[in-house]
């Protein structure tokens, strides 16, 4: 008798949760975040608005936005002992592994760790969002033998983050582009890292553990790790023609091209990538050099013609970060930092309406 249930590899198309947080509406080609369209938000709002929307369910007014900035600022510092832990890591540690370690080490500093109430989880998420720029930047700096970067309280959240990364106070247009990238990265329904965080949270595990699992998931190059992989690939050559040739060679060797394809948007461009492509144009025009844009466009054409595949957000976020002077090793940690807002909202929701994730298998082993 065949007792097997339908097995869906990679759980493609399987509904794993009911959520009020976000939805990829592929019919209307919209990314919905708590009833708002993400692309609209990226034109009218900033990353802190998005943080508030994700955690509180509505957009902040001017006064609330300013309170939020102040609140995050009070949490900018990270414990000296966490810095010591990061300093002990060997220099060949991947920045995502260092970030994972730093994030995980913070749990011991939470006096209210066992409190899973919505309010306690939100406060925890705000504390983490305050600390994320310092953890992200300093985990990278310490493994590279550099001195700890200090925050500048006079700057906006995103300007300070960029300042800590580059060591230079950014121009307003640079902050705007960086902030937009954080907003676009902040939430995206049920990617692997969000699923991971929710699976961990479903055991009643805390926010730190759930997010630490999220970092591990996001590091993989089929997910967030693709952004750094895109930049290494672009840096292999120097012209659009050479990039086309490189991609054709990789395709002939049956390699996957990083930054293309998506489980949900296989047959069209990720709408977030379009916004980042516009930012890349702006950056190239400011510099008076369109080479990187031309290379990316050449890559788009090859992938469309050869594979019918389109860019995802990582494909255009990578060259934007390059043009902003961000070290490649920080691309995926920045993605995680931005996604902490969305992941925290999901962990809070999971704790609120929890049922343990525990699926079954179809056994294909030795007979018994
Ligand atoms: C922000 C983000 O995390 S977005 C995702 C970032 N990841 C990447 O850019 C990595 C490159 N892309 C991929 O590996 C995939 O497109 C994924 C993982 C994103 C989606 O994967 P899935 O939905 O599982 O599709 P899957 O990997 O099965 O691909 C289906 C087919 O398209 C091909 N394909 C998919 N993406 C690519 C790619 N980037 N390059 C070349 N071929 C590809 C596969 O080889 C496969 O072909 P086949 O049917 O002939 O074997
Ligand atoms: O949705 C996904 O599977 C991956 C993705 O684009 C994201 O996490 O932003």
What does this structure look like?
By secondary structure, the protein is mostly helical. Helices cover 57% and strands 3% of the residues. The chain contains 16 helices and three strands. The chain has a three-stranded antiparallel beta sheet with strand order 1-2-3. Helix 2 packs parallel to helix 16 (331-352). The longest helix is centred in the middle third of the chain and has 26 residues, at 118-143. It is globular. The protein starts with 21 loop residues before the first strand and ends in a 16-residue tail after the last helix. The site of oxaloacetate ion has 6 residues, from loops.
Q: What's the tally of helices?
A: 16
Strand portion: under 5%
Low-confidence stretches: none
SSE string: EEEHHHHHHHHHHHHHHHH
Q: Given the C-alpha coordinates, what overall shape results? A: globular
Mean pLDDT level: 97
Largest sheet: 3 strands, antiparallel
Rounded to the nearest angstrom, the radius of gyration is 21 Å
Instruction: Record the strand order, biggest sheet.
Output: 1-2-3
Terminal-residue CA separation: 15 Å
Percent helix range: 55-70%
């Amino acid at each position: 008798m065949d007792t097997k249930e339908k097995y869906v590899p990679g759980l493609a198309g399987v509904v794993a949760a009911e959520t009020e947080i976000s939805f990829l509406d592929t019919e209307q080609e919209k990314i919905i975040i708590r009833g708002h369209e993400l692309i609209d938000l990226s034109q009218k709002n900033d990353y802190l608005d998005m943080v508030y929307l994700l955690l509180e369910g509505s957009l902040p007014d001017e006064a609330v936005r300013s309170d939020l900035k102040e609140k995050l600022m009070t949490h900018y510092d990270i414990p000296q002992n966490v810095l010591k832990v990061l300093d002990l890591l060997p220099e060949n540690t991947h920045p995502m592994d260092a970030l994972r370690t730093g994030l995980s080490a913070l749990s011991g500093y939470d006096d209210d760790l066992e409190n899973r109430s919505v309010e306690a989880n939100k406060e925890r998420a705000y504390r983490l969002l305050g600390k994320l720029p310092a953890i992200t930047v300093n985990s990278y700096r310490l493994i590279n033998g550099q001195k700890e970067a200090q925050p500048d309280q006079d700057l906006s959240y995103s300007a300070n983050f960029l300042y800590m990364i580059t060591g230079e106070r950014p121009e307003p247009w640079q902050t705007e582009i960086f902030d937009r990238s954080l907003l676009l990265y902040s939430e995206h329904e049920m990617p692997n890292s969000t699923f991971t965080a929710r699976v961990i949270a479903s055991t009643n595990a805390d926010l730190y553990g759930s997010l630490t699992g999220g970092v591990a998931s996001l590091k993989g190059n089929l997910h967030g790790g693709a952004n750094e992989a895109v930049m290494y690939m672009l840096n292999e050559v120097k012209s659009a023609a050479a990039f086309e040739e490189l991609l054709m060679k990789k395709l002939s060797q049956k390699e996957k091209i990083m930054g293309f394809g998506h489980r949900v948007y296989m047959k069209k461009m990720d709408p977030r990538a379009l916004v980042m492509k516009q930012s890349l144009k702006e950056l190239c025009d400011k510099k008076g050099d369109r080479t990187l844009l031309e290379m990316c466009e050449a890559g788009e054409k090859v992938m469309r013609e050869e594979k019918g595949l389109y860019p995802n957000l990582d494909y255009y976020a990578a060259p934007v970060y390059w043009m902003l002077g961000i070290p490649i090793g920080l691309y995926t940690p920045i993605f995680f930092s931005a996604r902490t807002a969305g992941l925290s909202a999901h962990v809070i929701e999971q704790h609120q309406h929890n049922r343990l994730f525990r699926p079954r298998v179809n056994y294909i082993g030795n007979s018994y």
